[in-house]
Design brief:
InterPro entries (chain A): FAD-bd, FAD/NAD-bd_sf, GMC_OxRdtase_N, GMC_OxRtase_C
Helix content of chain B: 40-55%
Number of helices of chain A: 15
CATH architecture of chain A: 3-Layer(bba) Sandwich
Helix content of chain A: 10-25%
Strand content of chain A: 15-25%
Distance between the termini of chain B: 31 Å
Organism (chain A): Acetobacter oeni
Structural class of chain B: mainly alpha
Number of strands of chain B: 2
Protein name (chain A): Gluconate dehydrogenase
Shape of chain B: globular
Largest sheet of chain B: 2 strands, antiparallel
Strand order of the largest sheet of chain B: 1-2
Oligomer: heterodimer
Keywords (chain A): FAD, Flavoprotein, Oxidoreductase
GO molecular function (chain A): FAD binding; oxidoreductase activity, acting on CH-OH group of donors
Radius of gyration of chain A: 23 Å
Number of domains of chain B: 1
Order of helices and strands of chain B: HHHHHHEEHH
Largest interface: A-B, 83 and 72 residues
Chain lengths: 594, 229
Amino acid sequence: MATITRKSVNVVIVGGGWAGSIMAKELTEAGQHVVMLERGAERSTAVDGAYPTSLDELEGNFRFKIFQKLQKTTVTIRNNITQTALPYRQLAAFLPGEGVGGAGLHWSGVHLRIAPDDLAMRSTVIAKYGKSFIPDGMNLQDYGVTYAELEPFFDKAEKVFGTSGEAYTVNGKIVGKGNAFAPDRSDDFPLPPLKDVTGAHLFRKAAEAVGYHPYSIPAANASRQYTNTYGAQMGPCNFCGYCSGYACYMYSKASPNVNILPALRNNPLFEIRPNATVLHVNLDSTKSRATGVTYLDDKGDKIIQPAELVILAAFQFNNVHLMLVSGIGSPYDPVANTGVVGRNFVYQNISTTTAWMDPSVYTNQFIGTGGGGVAFDDFNSENFDHGPLGFIGGSPVWVNQAGVKAIAAAKAGGPPGTPRWGSAWKSEMIDTYTHAVRMDAHGSNMAYRDVFLDLDPTWKDAFGRPLLRMTFDWKENDIRMNRYVVGKIEAVTKAMGARRTHLGMKEFGQPFDTRFYQTTHLGGGAVMGDDPKSSALNRYLQCWDVSNVFVIGSNAFPQGTGYNPTGMVAALAYWSAHHIRMTYLKNPGPLVPV
Amino acid sequence: MPSSPLPRRLLLQTLAGATALTTCTYIARRSQAAPPEIRYEPAFFTQEEWRFLHAACDRLIPQDVYGPSAIELGVPEFIDRQMETPYAYGALWYMQGPHITGPANLGYQLIYTPRDIYRYGISGACDLCRQMHNTEFADLDPATRDSFLRELESGEHQFGDLPASTFFGHLLGNTQEGAFSDPIHGGNKGLGGWAMTGFPGARADFMDWVDQYGKQYPLGSVSISGETI
């Protein structure tokens, strides 16, 4: 194993997903020589999404073909500070990606913006309900950036992703039947909304009848053929149902591999190195400046890659891990309540409700598109009065049928409490798969003083680094929010004419369970903000302590929102890149005085 | 656009023409051929384990009015073939020690790979069955096999440090995977699992049926290799 020092470059980017690809595109446009390091293999839709071989549910969803394999590295998890955290040995609760495209290759495509109140949740809650409304131990914070500031970058990202949707207002004028709670837009969606599948159609009619405000979920699944800002072409989605976990053989689902990297690969300023595992960011003796990164290549050689600017664009918790093992910023200590790296670790608070329709109604759950569907936001964000309810946060509610395939249907089985095997299981499972509609309350998760990330004292990865340790559990505030919103779904399933409904709710006292898939929407741990005492990054996602390191991803969210993170991550990437291009490159240094 | 849609279109044209014919061929072939489990020689499982596996899978997915059994669907062959994949050697899992037992909600913490889980699990289950029923599991009548499987599923039995319920969970999960995955992996023979659930397999084009609200999808299933029903 040799140690080799490569020629210095302007920018090194860690991670080949959405955040890294956006930063690479923006910074090469600014004339920077960019090297992208991706720990996983090279991936392309032509190979990984080939028809029909890629349409293999066993390999795609149950052998995790394009997800991270945990053999070399994972995290440890515990529910509270008194427990011994244990390794997350088998993929289940959340499914990080690996390989070129990152989680942006296997994602589904839900492409939302953000509720403006969510960006200033602390200020909003205090203004509306007073400071005492915030429960003890909840670290409610503002992002330090406004929707008006981010709007051009949401717009830019949608035009790159080829997002399908229906606007409510554009430049203050009502233009369509989009989300009535959505903030104003400077332009319409690049593509019209996708069609509703049966379940979404029934849900839309029923939600409307109940008095809610249903809308088509904005989806980075092309409803028509589309050529994006970078000349990348997308084909119209045919609702094949192989979105989540697959490399979309139709080239309909936006991915870094289809929508951005083709515009970079022939650029002499850009180089992508797959199979490059970054071990740490190198700092100079003052610990306030990065000199580059050290990585292992596929031959096992240790490569030192000097760079003027380091962009961490790995998955949320990998960014935090890299900061901790590199000594960037002060690690969070929940007991002393000091430090920031690892602070405000959040998840997403999801539960699924099932409605069984009349046996004459076939819901064809195998028909699906990853980002499409129908949602209502009446109980999301600050769209409803929390005063009498006494909790903070909310959930959009939606039918987002990404395509349920046969193994998943078999494992999901019938209604809770019915047998898991034998003839009774077959009967219930077939009935459920054939006639049921599933809907999610896709809720926010607040940040708490004793929910955080740090380094595990016992377990190590294959490279000798301590694993990242998650200390996480559901809290009363979030369980109450979930139960309140799910309770509101019952009227909808009644209006749908369901013959049977199971309201999926979080239960008090039930700990976070790592064995069951919930969502891969992890957030926080290296959050953005205006105060270096409560945020690791400033409002431009620049490290307060090491100004030539920017950290892009959902790690920047100070608390969870009800929305999927990718839309916000993409907008933050463009926002950060814009300020690097406009200000930082001309005069490298802190963009916000410390 | 990249080139992948073209071969797909050709394939579908071929399939569309062949659907009706293939359905007849399927019935004829099924009636003439020997059951697949007799032809298949397991590479991983011993004869004793193979017998247990058949007897258990046959109850997890029994033959009934809803459709074929796990045996008819070739599930034991599927599981045996899976035992030679990276998954079965634990290559998808973090296997580094120390291995410490903790609360169930923090997940699997044992040293065993799926191969180990089958080896120790079947051996433990066979021993337990002899203790409880004084006979081999495969020789029990179906109702007694069911009650024994329920013991494994929710009882407190341990095979050394391997909980019987952990073994049962793997067996059930793999059985369902075998019955409903693409036949390229050795199970779902004749696409019988998909026929039972109405899943169209690799057909993967529903542009024409998205907004046919509530109507049953009219076409049968297609596998990766082009088999149809």
